[in-house]
Design brief:
Blueprint: E1 2-3, E2 6-10, H1 17-30, E3 35-40, H2 46-59, E4 63-69, H3 72-80, E5 86-90, E6 99-105, H4 114-124, E7 138-141, H5 145-154, H6 161-167, E8 170-174, H7 183-190, E9 194-198, H8 218-226, E10 231-235, E11 242-245, H9 255-269, E12 274-278, H10 284-290, E13 295-299, H11 303-313, E14 317-320, E15 324-326, H12 336-350, H13 354-359, E16 365-372, H14 378-388, E17 393-395, E18 400-404, E19 407-413, E20 419-426, H15 429-442
Parallel strand pairs: 3-4, 3-5, 4-7, 8-9, 8-10, 12-13, 12-14
Antiparallel strand pairs: 1-2, 2-6, 5-6, 10-11, 14-15, 16-20, 17-18, 18-19, 19-20
Helix pairs in contact: 1-2, 1-4, 5-7, 9-10, 9-12
Length: 446
């Protein structure tokens, strides 16, 4: 899979050393053969891939700074706040354990734009020259960025760390033994939390399916109740997505990670501001924004698309309904640690329990499913959907989003898997499920 989200594949099958060298050498050329920062998640194969990445960059004449095991947002922050010409993160994010990948980061700390990606892919198909023996690059390690990331979070202008520390929250943390295993508990401890660690050994052995969906977080929900904790949090293997569990051991809702973030930021930054979320994100964001006379812009799915729209509109907060929060004050990237800090600030100001806080937010129910499209032309499906719903409000920026007042459905090709994603939202879960069921029957894929 090659997309604006990077390169991903099953290790030893699609993702081989030959493919890694091909894409990394192209990225070195794309970046002007300058300084490149390299980070990795904890998967068993990430270490050997990191060595291939660093070796290829050196062979291309680059200066390599290896920052070790870290979340994707840590590497993004490191690139954005340095003189590096780019970064390579070795991770397959929420994909299963046998997968790995390369996320390419431009000099400003964001993922490659569609235009940059096109140029990069063209370079990967061309014949590139490695550096002469006396022009090869060099290699250095810098393990300081975990701490630098934490300090950057603590310095968010409206975060009252002392007030948070006085609450002494008890929190269960599930990092699925991924890249967040060190930094997430550390950040919480900096905020005075008592941390109950769950799957935080950094081994890269996934104890459940890695995508932080409710069905994969049953252990976290149980431990929150057993330990009488204030709440639980889960992150994906590269820790750019945050999911919260209430004190009752019930999902807060991955969509509501960005909803609560928008609420606290608008509350602190004033009225008439701009917010950006993607086309698959809950309408609850608009409901929150109304209270502050804020304007909500929507972009195609994909972090770089959200970031691009945020820069265009000078948005003060943005993100995606999959648990991704982007706060430009820290850096332009989805960041679970930013989401944690904003959530803690929300809670101390609310003063009550997480389940009670959730009830103060606009209530919508979202239903997500996916269908395999190997051997199927998705454009034919989109054409049929447009004909069926020709009387509705249709957005074609990213697949098809169809709005019916306070309900909507979005059908689009995944950037990371050979599937079609179908997402619907309504005031009740049953109604959202019915929208999807009706759509699937009408296009003949039920």
């Amino acid at each position: 899979m090659v997309s604006v989200s990077g390169v991903r594949g099953v290790v030893g099958e699609a993702l081989t050393p030959f493919e890694i060298v091909k894409f990394v050498s192209a990225f070195a050329e794309f970046s002007g053969r300058g300084k490149i920062m390299v980070g990795r998640d904890t998967r068993a194969h990430s270490f050997f891939i990191s060595n291939i990445v660093s070796g290829t960059l050196i062979a291309m004449g680059c200066e390599v700074v290896d920052i070790g095991v870290c979340p994707t947002p840590t590497l993004q922050l490191a690139v954005e706040h340095s003189d590096a010409k780019g970064g390579v993160m070795i991770t397959a994010s929420h994909n299963p354990e046998k997968w790995n990948g390369l996320k390419f980061i431009s000099a400003d700390g964001t993922f490659l734009s569609p235009e940059q990606h096109k140029k990069f892919v063209e370079l990967s198909e061309s014949k590139l020259s490695f550096a002469r023996w006396d022009k090869i690059g060099n290699y250095a390690q810098d393990r300081s960025f975990i701490e630098k990331h934490i300090q950057k979070i603590l310095q968010i202008s409206f975060i009252d760390a002392e007030r948070i520390r006085k609450r002494r929250f008890k929190v269960v943390v599930d990092c699925i033994n991924g890249a967040g295993s060190e930094i997430v508990p550390k950040l919480l401890e900096e905020f005075g939390c008592k941390v109950v660690k769950l799957n935080c050994d950094g081994s890269g052995v996934f104890t459940h399916e890695p995508e932080p969906l409710p069905e994969n977080l049953t252990e976290l929900c149980e431990v929150v109740k057993q330990t009488e904790s204030d709440f639980g949090i889960a992150v994906d293997p590269d820790a750019d997505r945050l999911v919260i569990v209430t004190e009752k051991g019930e999902p807060f809702g991955e969509e509501y990670t960005i909803v609560q973030a928008v609420k606290i930021v608008l509350d602190k930054k004033g009225i008439n501001k701009n917010v950006v979320v993607n086309l698959s994100t809950t309408k609850a964001v608009e409901e929150i924004a109304k209270n502050y006379n804020a304007k909500v812009y929507r972009s195609p799915v994909g972090e770089i698309n959200v970031v691009k729209k945020m820069k265009e509109t000078d948005a003060i907060i943005g993100g995606e309904g999959s648990g991704g929060v982007i706060l430009p004050e820290v850096h332009y990237g989805r960041d679970s640690l930013v989401g944690i800090a904003l959530f803690l600030q929300n809670l101390v100001e609310f003063g009550g329990k997480v389940s009670e806080f959730k009830k103060t937010l606009p209530e919508f129910e979202i239903f997500k499913t996916k269908i395999n499209i190997e051997g199927v032309n998705p454009d034919e499906i989109f054409k049929k959907v447009k004909e069926i719903y020709s009387d509705a409000e249709i957005n074609t920026e990213d697949g098809l989003r169809i709005d019916f007042g306070d309900k909507w459905v979005h059908i689009r090709k995944s950037n990371t898997e050979p599937i079609l994603r179908i997402i619907a939202e309504a005031k009740s879960k049953k109604e959202a499920e019915e929208i999807v069921r009706d759509l699937k029957i009408k296009i003949g894929i039920d």
